[in-house]
Design a protein that fits this description.
about 450 residues, single chain, disordered N terminus, mainly alpha
């Protein structure tokens, strides 16, 4: 097998590849920003039950399905390649399952509420994972160049940011418009949002699966390593272990922020009408900061550039703890700086995972993009769900009452778990990123070594 190195990917291919993330990001954004809010304030379900059901979904099937589908794509041999069939055939079920997730009956309690949330989320997550594992694993197959992978990821993340912004900023606007202007019930309005977003995701996934026909620059030979050994061997890859620890901590922090942002703005700052504006400002800044983040990484490397972004986000979130219990324009300034910081979290982890695949190829002699992205995404989902669950638990702990004026203790809890705790845990990963072991130089040497080995074996 001869491993070719192609440094450049056309902008047209990058765009056709990246557009699928527009739809995927809409779904992810809506879940991160509004899933808990929908369950508590629209479906009228206890926040503790809602948060626990989402966490259990991550600690059961989601502990398996990311790795399972990632490994399955590595093992696949078809006339359409290893990845594309999963995207194409799961697109319609993805749309329907997302609609179901935002169409739950109102007023459920106890075990029934728990099982309804759990079942709906597991169904959606199955099809979402099937698509996303195949999609993400395409990146390292498109090029082996250190910087070009960041470029592909940046273009993809531009689409992701647009989708994320759309989901965060438009969701309540659409739901409220249907409720107030069209006379729909609140539940029906959110159900309509669910089917609308599901169909949008379905369309763009079809576009990518049908139009990205670039021949992979690496071998598409199915992996021969047994499942248990395949999983265990990834943890011998020390840079990968360090990366999943870093991104797991970052995902927990980001989930706390996104889940509690509506509660912070509505009850702490009394700025419910500005909710969409603040979200839009933060996410637009995030999108605009993607390209500068890429340029910074070209100068100092992916790890240190990621660390700089997390330092900015840490300062921004810590400042929210000190804002008054009243409307303040300072939240707009903080939103801008938070967006600047979190842009690095969107670009670098996704372009750093492909780099550890070459290290794995050196160790195993096989290309196993799927299993690495599977474990990476699984850790991100579980830690993200932990953040959402902590959000729900914190609301219970501090006496949150839906739709009522909150006590001083409740507001203190919201400020701690929205701003202070995320800032505190982000501090942990900054020094780890500054000393991240895979650099541009040693990655180029690794690729050169793999290429020479391939030339000899062929």
């Amino acid at each position: 097998m001869k491993t070719a190195i192609i440094n450049k990917v056309s902008i047209g291919t990058k765009i056709r590849y990246g557009i699928a993330d527009f739809g995927i990001a809409i779904l992810q954004s809506t879940i991160q920003f509004y899933m808990l809010f929908y369950l508590t304030d629209v479906a009228k379900i206890n926040p503790g039950i809602a948060g626990s059901a989402l966490l259990v979904s991550k600690l059961t099937w989601d502990m398996v399905n990311d790795v399972f589908f990632g490994y399955l794509t590595d093992r696949t041999r078809s006339r359409w390649g290893r990845r594309r069939p999963y995207m194409f055939f799961a697109a319609v079920p993805l749309a329907l399952s997302f609609w179901l997730l935002f169409s739950l009956p109102q007023g459920m309690t106890g075990v029934i509420a728990f099982l309804a949330i759990l079942g709906a989320y597991l169904l959606f997550d199955t099809f979402h994972t099937m698509i996303s594992m195949a999609y993400y694993a395409m990146t390292p197959e498109m090029t082996m160049d250190y910087n070009e992978r960041t470029s592909i990821t940046t273009v993809r993340m531009v689409f992701s940011a647009i989708g994320y912004i759309f989901g965060a900023a438009a969701t309540t606007f659409i739901a409220n418009m249907l409720r107030d202007s069209a006379g729909w019930t609140q539940a029906s309005s959110w159900s309509a949002v669910g089917i609308l977003y599901g169909v949008l995701a379905m369309i763009v996934v079809f576009i990518t699966s049908l139009t990205v026909r670039r021949k992979p620059v690496v071998s598409e030979e199915p992996t021969k390593i047994p499942p248990i050994s395949a999983i265990a061997s990834t943890f011998k890859n020390k840079p990968f272990v360090k990366l999943v620890i870093i991104t797991g901590i970052a995902a927990t922090s980001f989930a706390l922020i996104t889940s509690l942002l509506p509660y912070y703005l509505i009850y702490q700052l009394k700025m419910e009408s500005e909710l969409s504006i603040v979200m839009l400002l933060m996410l637009v800044t995030l999108g605009l900061a993607l390209w500068p983040s890429k340029k910074l990484s070209e100068r100092i490397g992916k790890g240190p550039a990621f660390g700089v972004g997390m330092a900015i986000a840490t300062v921004a979130m810590a400042l929210t703890f000190f804002l008054p219990d009243e409307p303040t324009p300072l939240i707009y300034v903080i939103a801008i700086f938070a967006g600047m910081g979190f842009a690095s979290q969107w670009v670098f982890p996704w372009s750093m995972v492909p780099d550890v695949v070459e290290l794995d190829e050196k160790m195993t002699g096989e290309r196993r993009e799927g299993i690495y992205f599977g474990i990476f995404v699984m850790v991100g989902k579980v830690t993200g769900a932990l953040g959402i669950a902590l959000s729900g638990w914190s609301l219970n702990w501090f006496g949150y009452m839906e739709g009522a004026a909150q006590t001083a203790d409740t507001l203190l809890g919201i400020r701690i778990f929205f701003g202070l705790l995320p800032a505190a845990i982000l501090i942990i990963i900054i020094p780890m990123l500054m000393k991240y072991p895979i650099t541009r130089k040693n990655h180029e040497e690794l690729v050169r070594e793999l290429r020479e080995r391939s030339d000899v074996s062929s």
